[in-house]
Specification:
388 residues, Fic-like fold, Arc Repressor Mutant, subunit A, 2 domains, three-stranded antiparallel beta sheet, two-stranded antiparallel sheet, 15 helices
Length: 388
């Protein structure tokens, strides 16, 4: 449905030139969203896929171990959209205080994303609402160090920004002027809190994401934070008990169309076109996440059976294997501390796991060796290659 321009333009002077900045109308859209039978079916499929994904966490015997790496995969993907080259392995090496194979700032940026997500989830678990205060707190964590740390972390912007182009005059999009950011964000917060009227959660997440990206309230980190908000909202509203849905892989695969849809919504008000895309993204991503969980569970079950066949050596090898399911790149020292086992015993277990083809030593060194749970990493890496 075309609703015409979803806001208004204001003329501003910035960086020595006069441009038009876009100020979005508050949510929900007017006239209301037209939930056609086709669009309703897409949302029903998305909700069904979310329900199946949520059920996966009940059947995973070691869900927290899976989540540790899965959250980091999302951090890699979300940061990759912004141009970083860090891989999942680079991030895991960095967390081990080992040298990653990419610039340190790239890995720090991904690590900050993980910290921001955990901060948000921790605050939600304390009963704190998804609010402007929480969004600012997460932004401060997101830009706490490395690239972007000089872009006023935790504060809405006080200067004009733009998207695309080398200056406002040739930008693809110019968000609201800084003196209108707080008002726009305040209205978005009201919408998140079901004012002026309640909105179904999945619909709310879809609409709020576009609005946040349109306001672009921070000088840096808007894309990553806008994607994080989707998962946080679903967790806050108990649609998901665990943070297992991340749309970065889907947005990365359809990046150009994603940006075109954001602009189409602003210019024509065709929210339904965006909502169809969003529902498809949720359904596809939720199904992929459930399948990844099943593959990882099957992989661990097969490997546990191989280890059980070791006889007396199986007990210590199983403990090392379980620790590697949480952190699939690790040193013998970390494993020893994690499971409270002597270094010599851990090293014997690692040798057994290498012989079984479960673990690979990736440094080719005699000391300070790093081991990789190779198949686990391969399954988790699906879609994270910059070339994908």
């Amino acid at each position: 449905m075309n609703r015409n321009l979803q806001g208004h333009y204001v003329e501003i002077s910035t960086v020595g030139e006069t441009v038009r900045a876009f100020v979005p109308a508050p949510l929900p859209p007017d006239p209301p969203i037209e939930l056609t039978p086709e669009l309703q079916e897409k949302f029903d499929k998305a909700l069904l896929a979310l329900g199946r994904l949520d059920a996966v966490s009940d059947h995973l015997p070691d869900a927290p171990l899976f989540l540790y790496t899965y959250v980091r995969k999302e951090a890699v993907l979300s940061s990759m959209i912004e141009g970083t080259q860090s891989s999942l392995s680079d991030l895991l090496l960095y967390e081990l205080e080992q040298e990653p194979g990419v610039p340190l700032d790239d890995v720090r940026e991904v690590s900050n994303y993980v910290a921001a997500l955990y901060h948000g989830l921790d605050r939600l678990s304390q009963g704190f609402p998804l609010s402007l205060r929480l969004i600012k707190e997460m932004h401060q964590v997101l830009l706490t160090r490395g690239r972007g740390s000089n872009q006023t972390p935790g504060e809405f912007r006080r200067s004009q920004n733009w998207i695309g182009g080398t200056r406002p005059g040739n930008a693809a999009f110019v968000p609201p002027p800084p003196d209108q950011v707080m008002e726009c964000m305040g209205k978005l917060e009201l919408f998140l809190h079901d004012q002026p009227k309640p909105t179904p959660v999945l619909l709310k997440a879809a609409l709020a994401h576009v609005q946040f990206e349109t306001i672009h309230p921070f000088l840096d980190g808007n894309g990553r934070l806008g994607r994080l908000m989707i998962t946080l909202l679903l967790c806050e509203q108990k649609i998901l008990r665990q943070p297992m849905l991340y749309l970065s892989l889907y947005f990365k695969a359809h990046r150009q169309y994603y940006y075109e849809l954001l602009n189409t919504v602003r210019q024509t008000g065709d929210w339904e076109l965006w909502l169809a895309f969003f529902a498809e993204a949720v359904a596809t991503t939720a199904s992929q996440a459930a399948e990844t969980a099943r593959q990882l569970h099957a992989c661990s079950q097969i490997d546990q059976q191989k280890i059980n066949d070791l006889g007396r050596a199986a007990a210590s090898a199983l403990q090392v294997h379980r620790a590697l399911m949480e952190r699939p790149i690790a040193t013998a020292g970390w494993l020893s501390e994690k499971i409270d086992m002597a270094n010599s015993t851990v090293n014997r277990a690692l040798s057994q796991l290498q012989k079984l083809g479960i673990v690979q030593e990736i440094t080719k060194q005699k000391r300070n060796r790093v081991f990789s749970y190779a198949q686990y990493i391969r399954i988790m890496n699906q879609g994270t290659s910059p070339a994908d």
